[in-house]
Amino acid sequence: MSGSRSVLSGGKAYLYILPILILSGIFLYYSIGFTVYTSFHQWNGIDSQMKYIGFDNYKKLFDDSTYHIALKNNLIFLVCTVLIQAALGLLLAVLLRAKLFGNHFFKSIYFIPVVMAPVIIAAIFRIIMDTNFGSLNETLRALHLDFLAVSWLGDPKYALMSVIIVNIFQWMGFSMTMYYSGLLAIPDEIYESAKMDGSGFWRTLFRITVPLVGGTTSTLVVLGIVGSLKTFDIVALLTGGGPGRSTEFLTTYVYKKAIDEFNGGMSAAAGVTILVIAVVLAVVQLRLGNRQQNNH
Predict the structure, then answer these.
(1) Which pLDDT tens digit goes with each residue over 5-64?
(2) How far apart are CA 32 and CA 39, in angstroms?
(3) Is this model's pTM higher than 0.90 or not?
(4) pLDDT tens for residues 63-119?
(5) What's the alpha-carbon Rg for the chain, to the nearest Å?
(6) Which residues fall within 8 angstroms of residue 245, CB to CB, at 6 or more apart?
(7) Confidence of residue 174 (pLDDT cuts 50, 70, 90)
(8) CA neighbor of 58 nearest in space, from 284, 276, 291
(9) What is the C-alpha to C-alpha distance for residues 268 and 57, in angstroms, rounded to an integer?
(10) What b/e sequence results for 64-77 when a residue is b if at least 16 CB atoms lie within 10 Å of its CB, and e otherwise?
(11) Which UniProt keywords apply (predicted)?
C-alpha cells in the first residue's frame, strides 16, 4: 500500500508541472524546432511553400560580411557588458553592505533601470546623447571640453560604445542585487578577522569577497552571455543597427533578413547560430565555474 501511495503521489507531482511542460513545448521547443527546420529551406516568411536547399543558407550566411560584422559587434558587446556590469555591481554591493547612511534609498535608485521599459530608457538616452542639444554635450561644452562633444549615436566610432554604456546602465542594478544577496550569506566574522589582520579594502575585496561570491559571478556571466546574444530592443530603439553597420547585432541581422528582405531561411539560420553560440559559451562558463568551486 505504501508503495502504491508513493507512486500515486509521484504521479500527482508530475501533474503540477504538466502545464508548464505543455506551454514550454508549444512556445519554446516547437519554435526552436521550426527555426532549425526553416534554416534548411528557401522561404520568404509568408508563403506556405518552402523549398529544401540543405546547407545553402548557412553557406551564404558565413560568406556574408554583414553577418561577420554583427558577430564581431556582439562579441565586443558581450565582453564589455558582462565584465563591466559584474565589476560595478560587485563594487556597489560591497559599498551598500557597509550599511552606510541611505543605503536602502540607493539600492532602490540603482535598481530602477532594471524594471524600466527599454523604450523609456532609449528615449531618455536619445535625448541625453543628442549631438546638438543633448545634456551630455551641453555639459561638456559648459566645462570647455568641446573636443569631447561628439555625435554619440550618429558616429560609427562611438555608437557601439554608447549602446554598451546604456546597456550597463540598464542592468548594473541587477548585478548589484545578485551580489548583495550573495554578500549577505557571508558571515561578518570573516570580515572582522580580516580587519584585525590589517587587510585593507582592496585586499579584502580580492582575497575574500571575490572568491566567496564566485557562484554568483558564474550565474551572472551565464545570464550576461545569453542576454547579450538576444539583445535587440535597446539597439533597435537607439541606433537601428547603424550608422552604417557599426551597431549591427546578430538579433538585428535576423530581424532585417526576415522582415526587410523576406529571407526567412537565412534569418532562421542566423537564429540557429545564436542558439549554438549561447549554449556553447554557457556550457564552457558553467564547467569553468564548477572546476573553480571544486578547487576551492
Answers:
(1) 554 455 677 788 888 888 877 888 888 899 999 999 999 888 888 999 999 999 999 999
(2) 11
(3) no
(4) 999 999 999 999 999 999 999 999 999 999 998 887 777 777 888 888 999 999 999
(5) 24
(6) 66, 69, 70, 73
(7) very high
(8) 276
(9) 9
(10) eeebebbbebbeeb
(11) Cell membrane, Membrane, Transmembrane, Transmembrane helix, Transport
| Long-range residue pairs from 31-36, CB within 8 A, at least 24 positions apart, any chain | 32/275, 35/268, 35/271, 35/272, 35/275, 36/268, 36/272
**Neighbour-count burial of 84, counting CB atoms closer than 10 A to its CB (0-12 exposed, 13-18 middle, 19+ buried):** middle
With residues binned 3-state (H G I as helix, E B as strand, rest as coil), the percentages for the chain, rounded to 5, are: 75, 0, 20
Q: Which three cell numbers stand for residue 195?
A: 580587519
Encoded amino acid at 186, one letter: I
51, β-bridge pairs: 42
Q: Which long-range contacts (CB under 8 A, 24 or more apart) does 51-56 make?
A: 53/265
